[in-house]
Amino acid sequence: MLLPQVKELLKQYTEQDLRLLISEMYKAVPKKIREDKDIDEMITDIHAYKSIGKINREQSVKRDITQLKPQIERFIDYAYKQYYFAPNKYIHKKERPNGDFM
């Protein structure tokens, strides 16, 4: 369904129905997508969310190198031990390359 069609359909709902619709849609969205798309921030203040813009929102998430350091060191350690190459209990199968790109 296209956005103009959705807008036309939403005109027929009451405020209470719209609240119910939004809450059901929120429950249907997986947590990872809610976090990636900042859905909670959007619900908190839609006008501030729209004014930030997509580019500024992506730039506003800054990571400190000290937070990334343990993850980087673990990745390098696992790579040296070849945990990404063969089945093991440290790296799940879906996180290992499957050889399709070789």
Q: Mind explaining what this structure looks like?
A:
The longest helix is centred in the last third of the chain and has 16 residues, at 65-80. The mean pLDDT is 83. It is built from seven helices and no strands. The protein has 102 residues and is an all-alpha fold. It has helices spanning 3-10, 15-28, 31-36, 39-44, 46-52, 54-60, 65-80. It is 63% helix and 0% strand.
Our Rg estimate from Cα atoms comes to: 21 Å
Give the helices and strands as they follow along the chain.
Answer: HHHHHHH
Count of domains: 2
Q: Could you give the distance between the termini?
A: 39 Å
Brief sketch in words of this structure:
The chain has 7 helices and no strands. By secondary structure, the chain is mainly alpha-helical. The chain is elongated.
